Amino acid sequence: MVEEKLRYSDADLAEFKEIILKKIEKAQADLELIKSAYMNDLNNGTDDTSPTFKAFEEGSETMSKEANSQLAIRQEKFIRDLKNALFRVENKTYGICKVTGKLISKERLKIVPHATMSIEAKNMQR
What we know:
Elements: H1 10-39, H2 51-90, H3 106-111, H4 119-125
């Protein structure tokens, strides 16, 4: 009788930890870019242009800042989810589906390292 694995091996967890750390590093760099674009208050010099153009420019700038703000919020959530995954690696519960209790496939975890549910569980939600 084949016993079903209850958790990933320490070697697997170390591999996942490396993947997660790389993703966190990249995500934090991306967040800094987004924030710098959001915080950029450099004036592109529309003072000498017609008032109509200036109004369009300011409206566009506001929309851009709002979009960047939303991107920053999503990126911060992504980083938080990755850090939570790292915590699960440390306490050796990483890769266990929170719905079925079965192991999430390695392929899924390599693509979505912050996943907490297996494809099976995700499909049950629909």
